[in-house]
Specification:
The protein is an alpha/beta fold. Helix content is 32%, strand content 25%. Strand 1 (2-6), helix 1 and strand 2 form a beta-alpha-beta unit. Bound molecules: NADPH dihydro-nicotinamide-adenine-dinucleotide phosphate and ligand LZUJQKHR.
Length: 247
Amino acid sequence: MKIALLGYGKMGRTIETFALGRGHEIVLTIDENNIDLLTPENLGKADVAIDFSTPGSVLRNIDTCFAAGTPVVVGTTGWYGHLQEIKDRCLESNNSLLYGSNFSIGVNLFFFANRVFAKMMNAYPQYDVQVEEIHHTQKLDSPSGTAITIAEEILEGLERKKEWVNNLVGTGEEIVNKPDQLLIESHRIEDVPGTHTVIYSSEVDEIELKHTAHSRAGFALGAVIAAEWLNGKRGFYSVQDIFDFNI
Ligand SMILES: NC(=O)C1=CN([C@@H]2O[C@H](COP(=O)(O)OP(=O)(O)OC[C@H]3O[C@@H](n4cnc5c(N)ncnc54)[C@H](OP(=O)(O)O)[C@@H]3O)[C@@H](O)[C@H]2O)C=CC1
Ligand SMILES: O=C(O)C1=N[C@H](C(=O)O)C[C@H](O)C1
């Protein structure tokens, strides 16, 4: 497969290594310094584009992929307020896009367990629940996209929580959440690739579901697998369409 990498930072470079290792070719790499190369004509040379760029650039990158008719895998987070609008445009123009807040198999297994747990916990009102995420200090968005997915799936399953709220710890602007609000606590610590925890606590005990990424390898391999899956398909997909964990 011929791949265009939109965003050539920590993730773009790791994805390149995995893509080459699986026999693919990188035909275009875009970062802030060569943005003039991001044209429909150049993108048309790729079978698929993979975007791990920034919340401020991802929408324009998606538009250019749509103009080129090039399927795009979007790993960038921090743009989900525009999800419905992008989905509509993708389907109207007969394009293809697959997005995911987290492409690692481990986190997708974690998502499944989180959905099951949230529903189970309707019967146990003595437990309160909280989400915690820890990432490196260069991260531009908070809460993390993964934490948003986790929180929204808890809201879908657990009737006593109505909306999520976020505290970026250390800003001095932390709020105290109401009982029907699901708190996502964000921490920024040097060099942490990504740790997510769901904590159910009662007066007598605590249950934690926790995923710790040891490196970016799982995200990068998952993104290449997603690009292989999307190649040749039309439509709007999420990473959860790739994994089938039904039990
Ligand atoms: N879904 C998932 O599994 C994962 C998602 N992510 C998400 O991926 C994104 C990237 O993360 P990461 O690689 O760590 O970030 P980096 O900051 O390391 O890399 C971002 C890259 O985007 C480039 N960039 C800036 N503006 C543009 C533009 N207009 N067009 C194309 N590229 C641009 C930067 O260029 P320059 O260096 O020149 O500034 C840089 O190369 C984040 O949103 C992060 O949350 C991260 C890990 C896993
Ligand atoms: O910015 C990161 O690094 C990561 N971002 C994603 C997110 O926002 O959830 C995924 C992963 O946790 C790493």
